[in-house]
Amino acid sequence: MVGEETPPGRPKSSPVTGMSxxxxxxxxxxxxxxxxxxxxxxxxxxxxLRFIWREQEHEIAAVLGTWSDxxxxxxxxxxxxxxxxxxxxxxxxGLVMRIYFIRNPxxxxxxxxxxxxxxxxxx
Length: 123
Fold this sequence. Notes:
By secondary structure, the chain is mainly beta. The chain has one helix and eight strands. A hairpin with a 2-residue loop joins β5 and β6 (76-91). The longest helix has 4 residues, at 108-111.
């Protein structure tokens, strides 16, 4: 039915691509020394080329897309800042994942958890 939402925990399916997207929403841990410098001159985070998720190391083979979410700044609607940087990546094992980086965590505790795995696409 049009407009019907997928129940939580169930993958969303695309009739166009035949892919379904499974929400994960879990922290990932970048492997030290694997961050890219590309984008850092523009104020973007260095993407970890390897990261740990569920005690397994994953290596990024390709970046399929990037984008960012913005919010209004304290100086009004003309001042917007990027608060979340998104990456759609393919790993060397063939998984397509959406990961993101939180620029300004709300607390010190959250500052240790800046990288997250949002979802995995499956056929």
